[in-house]
Specification:
about 750 residues
Length: about 750
């Protein structure tokens, strides 16, 4: 039975990969290359087809599922910059010194595209592909041969520009489903991690490793949500689009409830009767995660999702800890009340899951009054701006330092390629550096290992393939398939992409040289080892250690938390007649999550760096944990204000809300925060049963806890910044002593 269960899980995982948006994107790339290269092969021969496939390969890197609006302009820079460089390399094929003088500054310019962040990196790769792959294209004899080769390459790039734009529009509906399914799988994974934390709470030593996984999953989910917003919230005008957009908004609410479910667990853990309750809650949460997985699977295969029975009755039957003997005016919540509150928060997740499935089944109607009119505010910009480049020119800018580092690495690798005894595949060392060298050491080390193994496997596969002397049409199909696999898995699983890219590069080189080039496994492996060694070595040249980014990321997270607190604690939504306060809160919430996601990612990447240059990881861990706890408290308050406003005394909570917002803002943003003036001491209000009486005392408790957490966040941030400043001063002192 266990073997069958493992096989079933493996089959489900394989199906999810096969139906994913990144595999769909790879298939688009493969089909585009097949059509363009096939037409060129039919009319002009094998060399024309291979040269056109290089033009396709130049434009492919930035081709990812994207909104329909701006897709063409997303790809155009790759062709506009890459094609002239392709021709320039062709013209300098027989002038090694001049070619080297072109490669170094062109590489510097290419990697400056990193100033545009995630949008810019694929453009960098495209430009470098234009340079490096042109070195693999032999110059043909005869008058105008360079122009002819350039024309073939241009046809390939232009044809793929049109094809990719049309394919993106044709697959827009499918991409919407796939992106939503990807988010649902990520949310289910986060829920399972939270469920394991509930179970581990009975053994605190087991809970610590889960905190890091929780932070990682929160950050990953934030990235996936933004990618999904970009597509799902674009023009939700049809009923089908509205249903999918409504499901995405439902996921955002579930994330909030899931975050709030971490509240009060420490108090429950201290109670001797907590393990059975928390284990039961963890089991229910895991079951809800399974429902999300089933929903995502149904969406991917186009099947009607199955309904599921609510877990509310089961939650109601849970055995809660015994009620302590509290006085009438006791302001300390009992563990029974906290347990009921935690159970109720899981009930909210249960209700949101039910509504999510009802939306998918067409049994509920989405409320999209907000995003119909303001969807542009939630999606990433598609237009290119010169502003990122204008802000780049200071010595500590990571994209500038990476561009210098990459140009030096390419120059050194090119000099080495001219010196090695074989010297027939000089572009292979450069190509290895292009795909391995990244802005962070962590990414470079990961790609270094995968590139070596992938090249070894790819060389073996290609050697076996070419040994049977297949016809050129079959080789063209193999190049197409390898391109699709490499494109699909370049971000998700690079080792698979490395194998496919090796096969593609070797077969394409064989075709470009009309089958006359000798295939040498040892040479390719030696070139790969040289390339990864150079990339790894230059990762330490002008390094941009993560600790250099930490102060700015900490400042961003503090500002985002303060702004979110001001909006979440406002009473505007209670009194408004339009959606403006709701829009402001959703935008503030997104920035709060995104800022923490960036800080989590920087912290995780620093783990691969030398110990001497790592940021203060312990202080950063406390800062991140307290930041998420603060976000959870504010989410709980906002939930009370929005969904349970009928049980709040507006006159009683108005001043405390204002005071809490001011206290949190001052704690997080003031340059020299001072203790807030405290109101006259008075007896803390008793906490009534939250399910039967006025909720105002519970809201006031949350406000107090949020204010205390804000002070802790500020203290953690100052500890991190003091450590970063001390390390920077020590570095400057060391450089001064060396000079």
């Amino acid at each position: 039975m266990q073997t069958l269960s493992r096989i079933d899980r493996s089959l489900r995982a394989a199906r999810r990969i096969a139906l994913s948006h990144y595999v769909a994107s790879g298939l688009v790339a493969a089909l585009g290359m097949l059509l363009i290269s096939g037409v060129m092969h039919f009319y002009f021969g094998a060399f024309a087809a291979a040269a056109a496939s290089v033009g396709v390969a130049i434009v492919i890197p930035p081709d990812q599922p994207a909104p329909q609006r701006g897709k063409f302009w997303q790809l155009l820079p790759a062709a506009l910059i890459g094609l002239p460089l392709f021709l320039a390399v062709q013209a300098l094929h027989n002038a090694p010194v001049l070619l080297g003088l072109l490669l170094v500054p062109a590489s510097f310019i290419a990697f400056l595209a990193g100033a545009w962040g995630k949008r810019g990196l694929p453009i960098s790769i495209s430009i470098m592909f234009a340079l490096v792959l042109s070195m693999a294209v032999p110059v043909q004899g005869g008058t105008g041969s360079i122009a002819t080769t350039g024309l073939y390459c241009t046809i390939g790039s232009a044809g793929y520009l049109v094809f990719a734009s049309l394919a993106n529009s044709a697959l827009n509906a499918r991409y919407r489903i796939q992106m939503l399914a990807d988010v649902l799988f990520a949310l289910a994974g986060l829920m399972r991690c939270q469920a394991r934390q509930f179970s581990a709470l009975s053994q605190p030593s087991d809970a610590a490793p889960l905190i890091g996984e929780l932070l990682h999953r929160q950050a990953s989910l934030a990235d996936q949500l933004q990618a999904a917003r970009n597509i799902l919230l674009e023009s939700p005008r049809t009923p089908r689009r509205q249903r999918l957009a409504g499901m995405l908004l439902q996921v955002l609410e579930m994330r909030d409830h899931l975050l709030a479910s971490e509240l009060d667990v420490d108090t429950l853990r201290a109670h001797p009767g907590h393990p059975p309750l928390l284990n039961a809650l963890g089991e229910i949460l895991g079951t809800l995660a399974d429902e999300l997985d089933s929903l995502a699977d149904a969406l991917l295969i186009g099947r009607q999702p199955e309904p599921f029975a609510s877990h509310r009755p089961r939650l109601a039957r849970l055995e809660l800890p015994d009620e302590e003997d509290h006085g009438a005016n006791d302001s300390t919540p009992s563990t029974a009340m906290l347990a009921r509150g935690l159970s109720n928060r899981l009930g909210h997740i249960n209700d949101e899951t039910l509504r999510l499935i009802a939306l998918a089944r067409g049994e509920a109607q989405p409320d999209l009054s907000l995003v119909r009119t303001a969807w542009q505010a939630f999606v990433s910009p598609t237009a290119w701006s010169w502003q990122p480049l204008s802000e780049l020119w200071h010595w500590n800018a990571p994209p500038l330092r990476h561009a210098i580092r990459a140009a030096l690495a390419i120059g050194s690798a090119y000099a080495l390629s001219l010196a090695v005894p074989w010297g027939t595949h000089d572009y292979w060392i450069l190509l290895t550096i292009v795909v391995v060298l990244r802005g962070s050491l962590a990414q470079t080390v990961e790609r270094r290992n995968h590139r070596v193994l992938g090249t070894l496997l790819g060389c073996v596969l290609t050697g076996a393939l070419l040994a049977i002397h297949p016809p050129s049409v079959l080789l063209l199909l193999i190049v197409m398939l390898a391109q699709g696999i490499a494109h699909a898995f370049a971000v998700r699983r690079y080792i698979v992409a490395a194998v496919a890219a090796t096969v593609m590069g070797l077969v394409q080189s064989h075709m470009l040289n009309a089958g006359s080039a000798t295939f040498e496994v040892i040479e390719r492996i030696a070139d790969t080892l040289a390339g990864v060694a150079i990339a790894w070595a230059f990762a330490y040249v002008l390094p941009s250690w993560e600790r250099g980014r930490i102060p700015a990321l900490v400042a961003r997270s503090l500002a985002a938390q303060a702004h979110h607190a001001r909006v979440a604690l406002g009473l505007g939504q209670l009194q408004a007649v339009d959606n403006e306060p709701e829009l402001a809160w959703r935008l503030a919430r997104r920035e709060a999550y995104d800022s923490l996601s960036a800080l989590v990612q920087a912290t995780q990447q620093s783990l691969a760096e030398p110990r001497a240059v790592r940021p203060p990881l312990e202080a950063l861990g406390r800062l991140l944990a307290h930041n998420y706890q603060l976000l959870a408290q504010l989410t709980a308050v906002k939930t009370m204000l929005m969904s349970r406003r009928g049980r709040l005394d507006a006159a009683r909570i108005q001043l405390p809300l204002q005071q809490a917002a001011e206290a949190i803002d001052q704690a997080l943003t003031a340059s020299d925060p001072q203790p807030m003036a405290q109101p006259p001491a008075q007896e803390p209000p008793a906490l009534p049963d939250p399910f039967e009486q006025d909720l105002s005392p519970w809201l006031l408790r949350r406000l107090g806890l949020a204010s205390e957490l804000a002070a802790q966040v500020r203290g953690d941030a100052e500890a991190v910044l003091r450590s970063a400043k001390a390390e920077a001063d020590a570095d400057r002192a060391g450089r001064g002593a060396g000079e």
